[in-house]
Design a protein that fits this description.
This protein is an alpha/beta fold. It has 5 helices and 6 strands; from the N terminus they run βαβαβββαβαα. Strand 1, helix 1 and strand 2 form a beta-alpha-beta unit. Helix 4 runs antiparallel to helix 5. The two termini are 35 Å apart. The relative contact order is 0.16. The structure holds zinc ion. Zinc ion binds next to loops.
């Protein structure tokens, strides 16, 4: 859905009638969050990255395709092993842990105490692949595999898909042992994204039906 620029909030990229700026009470997160957002995602008003930016107290959203190194991307002088990049793995079950931190050599890190921040790539599967490819320094970081027990609130193409804000909330809740972060995330996501998306879809369907009714019948 496209809106004229004058009707869009410059801060959250949403139509001014659905802007959430100033209405979100931030939650405190111990681990820093950096979201690297593919430029094609940034003006989609149902994108959850800007909502994450306002919800999590320590969260930076950076829009771009490539950064010259980890420090340029995150704005912090931390070592690669102090960061974990979010990777979605599966649908839970099977005895798999909800989150698994791995080193760059794919070894499981049992006590991920060294991790100070997480990096999420925001975009569809293809866009995320591009971000990996354009930023090879990401490979030096740890990864954190997510294996959510619950499906996303939004219908996704991939069954195991989570929106960016859900993935970050899920990851923080497990790594920090703060289930309330996941509750706050789900509630906000439902209120500001899932429900408006449903309403917009319904309105579009009704409008389409009306248009169909108005169409003159072609003489046979
Ligand atoms: Zn706004």
């Amino acid at each position: 859905m496209k809106f004229p620029a004058a009707e869009v909030c410059a801060a959250c990229s949403r139509p001014k009638t659905a802007c959430f700026c100033g209405q979100i009470v931030p939650v405190k997160n111990r681990l820093a969050v950096v979201i690297l957002e593919h430029p094609q995602e940034t003006h989609k008003w149902m994108n959850s990255a800007s909502l994450a930016g306002q919800l999590f107290g320590d969260c930076t959203v950076r829009v771009g395709l490539s950064w010259r190194n980890l420090e340029a991307a995150t704005g912090r002088p931390w070592r690669p092993s102090e960061w974990a990049v979010l990777v979605l793995k599966g649908e839970g079950g099977g005895g798999d842990r909800p989150v698994t931190v791995r080193t760059r050599e794919h070894q499981i890190v049992d006590r991920p105490g060294e991790i100070r921040g997480i990096i999420a790539l925001d975009g569809n599967w293809q866009q995320a692949k591009t971000l990996w490819w354009r930023n090879p320094w990401l490979l030096k970081c740890h990864t954190v595999e997510l294996n959510p027990e619950l499906a996303s609130q939004r219908a996704q193409v991939k069954k195991a898909g989570l929106s960016t804000i859900e993935a970050v909330g899920f990851c923080l809740a497990h790594l920090e042992n703060t289930p309330q972060i996941l509750d706050a995330t789900s509630e906000l996501y439902r209120r500001w994204i899932v429900e408006p998306a449903r309403a917009a879809h319904k309105a579009a369907t009704v409008a389409q039906k009306l248009t169909d009714v108005d169409k003159p019948v072609e003489p046979v």
